[in-house]
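Sat 14:20. Reprocessing the chain from the morning session after the first attempt stalled halfway. Input below, unchanged.
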Amino acid sequence: MGQSHPTGLTPNLLKLFEPRPPLEFLPPPEKRKCPPYTGMAQFVSHFAEPGDPKYAPPKPEVETPAQKRERIHKSRLEKGVEKAAEDLQKYDPNNDPNASGDPYKTLFVARLNYETSESKIKREFEAYGPIKQVCISERSLTGSVRSHHVLFAI
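Finished this time. Tokens:
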């Protein structure tokens, strides 16, 4: 083998690692003379003074979060009062289709098993007196049975 480099690289690879030629010398650029600093006293007459509309434009009235909460709270209270007044006018307990029977002769039975039927409840409570009607409470939206029943006694 002839002459070899201490790193063991071939001449083709050594060409990739050769340094670049030195930079050409250029004389430093000439220093330019900058214009002198001047004052701004000649422009003070153009400034806006207090009282001018350009000096400080009026700030727009922005609602603070506390004011917004208070406003929303008041509007909801007003809507609630209006709804209560409407519901009070519509309320007629004598024409309620869901209300049947005397409330003083109604018994509410809670915590019952879901498999308990109306006939089982009626059979158990007839020992205490005649039962006019047994109602199983259902959810109006889903139709699923709840764990409480209502008995109407005579």
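Residues 101-153 form a domain with the Alpha-Beta Plaits fold (CATH 3.30.70.330).
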